[in-house]
């Protein structure tokens, strides 16, 4: 076991190792481009090495390791060996063993899982404390001797004041989180967790872990992270690069489905119908309703001869193809191929050879029949027909039809104005025509807010892959928010996906959790109780003579502390509060921000000021859920400032505090 001085020298070895890796990768770029056998391999090798060099040089500078495992003599595999564990593998000198092991390697698992009761062969677990990139301390737990304590370094990491974007948690992943991070690639899982239990953190680390453990498979198929909005994506975007993973696609569902610009807004009633699962059947019928019955034989000219396929045979071909439940576009091709094949059989019976040019010519001759019976169609044309009310069918009620159909239909598809919900419907039709690109693994955050139709859009993209679904039923704010996870997992195409609860909160201090929990009873959701890891923190409820004045005062006080300050208000109050703060010289900058309640999901601030809870609760149908989200963004301190009475669901406990 080394002293702090020894460990500092080890840091030097790591720095040298990293330098060697970077130089090696750069040299290899130059050599790799000229040594490969052919141009194709040269290009591939060059691209691989370049991206490695780029990755290494762009990687944010951080501590090279955060932990160390010393195995005891009776460990079967690692007897007497020691390993430093870090964010990335660092190679040793002269081809020797690595100086740092990647946290995702199998041996590193014991760092997260071993304990006094089950040491897993580990004699000593060491955690390191850093100030920037300077090693300052370490703590040892002699697990084999039954020693395991609450770590000071761990507590400090969890309780540190927050500033800026989200950071990785590799040094402090907890056993219940590690189970989820390292779950099998083929397992689709759903994580239900109260605010701050680390769902997002777990999802991002799972992406990094899967890319390490199944690199080849996932490099081809890709990993997709879906978040609720841009602010959230900006907040989490640095985590995966810090873990050495640059290639994960991180986006919102709206952006993923954005095939046309959104220039119109639905009424809530229309949006509710458009997001209902029954719309899938409405659209399916509208699309397949375009397929007609052959009403005459096909006659295809071929020189002076005309090939004929009877009406009866054509009907059989169309019916058989329909029964195969292929994507609409594939079905069209299949019908064409089958009609051509029927003609080819006739030609061959007459001793004619059917070469490629002949087949193409006959296929062209079949096209008019195809256009009449199984026409090529674009998603927008189908949806245009539905919203114009062309295809009223039994699926929706008259009132529902009235809600979604255009009062004044646009003159053509081209002039139609589409809404956000229409994007989802267009995607549904596009998916019926042709299967979209799938991913090897999709991580879906804030999944409780997805509508059944949005779930189907995700399911289409993970049909042959797996899913990590993250959410909290209590934080559902959309009119179609989930009330049960098994039902959502079924809509997401993974009915057998396991639902697992995370129950320790790492963000919100106990006093704040208690306040937020009083709202839970009013929210009418079944979620497991959570305990907060944090006993620190402060909650203050202030009745102010005027809201703006009260908020200005609270912000002034908050800025005296270290860390970020977030003022969260009903969307309609944001402008007035921002200008009131500006008038007092309190401008939103890196540390202070004023956020509409509708945009704070998934975010956190060290100090939160929730302005006028009643206004947040009243602003929308699920306003109490929105208030629950707002109240649970605080890491260290929560100020609730109100000029009007608090919502009754909250006031009981707030008065007590
Ligand atoms: N094991 C851990 N060690 C240190 N910090 C952690 C750990 N787990 C979670 N955290 C921290 O707790 C905070 C909340 O995590 P995260 O945002 O992932 O929670 P969440 O469950 O997604 O919350 P919400 O439901 O509010 O979106 C973050 O600052 C995260 O870094």
From TrEMBL:
Protein name: HelD family protein
Keyword Disulfide bond: no
Binding site residues for ATP: 193-200
PANTHER family: DNA 3'-5' HELICASE, UVRD / RECB / PCRA DNA HELICASE FAMILY MEMBER
Residue span(s) of domain UvrD-like helicase ATP-binding: 172-509
PROSITE patterns attached to this UniProt entry: UVRD_HELICASE_ATP_BIND
Signal peptide coordinates: none
Species the sequence originates in: Nonomuraea helvata
UniProt keyword annotations, A-Z: ATP-binding, Helicase, Hydrolase, Nucleotide-binding
Lineage of source species: Bacteria, Bacillati, Actinomycetota, Actinomycetes, Streptosporangiales
Highest taxon of the lineage: Bacteria
């Amino acid at each position: 076991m080394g002293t702090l001085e020894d460990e500092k020298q080890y840091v030097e070895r790591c720095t040298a190792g990293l330098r060697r890796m970077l130089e090696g990768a750069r040299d290899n770029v130059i050599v790799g481009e000229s040594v490969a056998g052919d141009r194709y391999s040269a290009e591939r090798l060059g691209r691989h090495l370049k991206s490695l060099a780029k990755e290494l040089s762009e990687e944010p500078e951080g501590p090279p390791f955060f932990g160390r495992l010393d195995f005891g003599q009776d460990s079967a595999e690692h007897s007497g060996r020691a390993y430093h564990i870090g964010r990335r593998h660092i190679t040793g000198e002269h081809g020797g063993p690595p100086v740092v092991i990647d946290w995702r390697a199998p041996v590193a698992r014991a760092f997260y899982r071993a304990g006094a009761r089950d040491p897993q062969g580990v004699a000593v677990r060491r955690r390191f404390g850093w100030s920037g990139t300077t090693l300052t301390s370490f703590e040892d737990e002699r697990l084999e001797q039954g020693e395991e304590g609450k770590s000071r370094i761990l507590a400090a990491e969890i309780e540190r004041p927050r500033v800026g974007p989200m950071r990785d948690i590799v040094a402090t992943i907890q056993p219940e989180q590690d189970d989820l991070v390292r779950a099998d690639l083929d397992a689709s899982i759903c994580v239900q967790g109260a605010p701050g239990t680390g769902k997002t953190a777990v999802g991002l680390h799972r992406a990094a872990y899967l890319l390490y453990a199944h690199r080849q498979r996932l490099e081809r198929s890709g990993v997709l992270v879906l978040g609720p909005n841009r602010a959230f994506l900006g907040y989490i975007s640095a985590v995966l690069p810090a873990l050495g993973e640059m290639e994960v696609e991180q986006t919102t569902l709206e952006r993923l489905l954005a095939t046309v610009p959104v220039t119109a807004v639905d009424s809530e009633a229309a949006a509710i119908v458009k997001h209902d699962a029954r719309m899938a059947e409405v659209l399916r019928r509208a699309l397949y309703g375009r397929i007609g019955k052959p009403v005459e034989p096909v006659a295809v000219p071929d020189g002076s001869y005309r090939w004929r396929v009877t009406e009866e045979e054509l009907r059989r071909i169309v019916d058989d193809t329909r029964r195969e439940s292929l994507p609409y576009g594939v079905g069209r091709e299949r019908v064409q191929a089958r009609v051509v094949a029927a003609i080819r059989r006739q030609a061959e019976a007459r001793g004619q050879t059917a070469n490629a040019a002949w087949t193409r010519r006959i296929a062209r001759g079949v096209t008019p029949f195809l256009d009449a019976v199984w026409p090529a169609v674009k998603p927008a044309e189908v949806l245009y027909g539905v919203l114009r009310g062309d295809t009223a069918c039994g699926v929706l009620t008259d009132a529902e039809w009235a809600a979604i159909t255009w009062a004044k239909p646009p003159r053509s598809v081209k002039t139609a104005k589409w809404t956000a919900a229409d994007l989802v419907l267009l995607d549904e039709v596009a998916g019926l025509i042709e299967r979209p690109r799938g991913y090897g693994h999709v991580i879906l955050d804030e999944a409780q807010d997805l509508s059944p139709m949005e779930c189907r859009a995700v399911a289409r993209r993970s049909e042959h892959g797996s899913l990590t679904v993250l959410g909290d039923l209590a934080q559902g704010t959309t009119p179609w928010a989930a009330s049960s996870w098994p039902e959502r997992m079924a809509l997401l195409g993974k009915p057998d996906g396991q639902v697992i609860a995370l129950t320790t909160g790492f963000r919100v201090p106990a006093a704040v959790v208690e306040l937020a929990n009083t709202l839970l009873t009013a929210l009418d959701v079944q979620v497991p109780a959570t305990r907060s890891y944090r006993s620190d923190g402060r909650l203050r409820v202030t009745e102010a003579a005027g809201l703006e004045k009260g908020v200005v005062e609270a912000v002034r006080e908050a800025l005296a502390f270290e860390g970020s300050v977030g003022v969260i208000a009903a969307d309609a109050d944001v402008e007035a509060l921002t200008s009131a703060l500006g008038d007092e010289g309190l401008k939103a900058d890196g540390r202070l921000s004023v956020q509409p309640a509708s945009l704070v999901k998934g975010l956190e601030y060290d100090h939160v000021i929730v302005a006028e809870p009643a206004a947040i609760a009243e602003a929308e149908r699920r306003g109490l859920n929105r208030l629950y989200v707002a109240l649970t963004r605080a890491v260290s301190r929560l100020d609730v400032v109100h000029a009007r009475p608090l919502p009754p669901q909250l006031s009981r406990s707030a008065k007590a505090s």
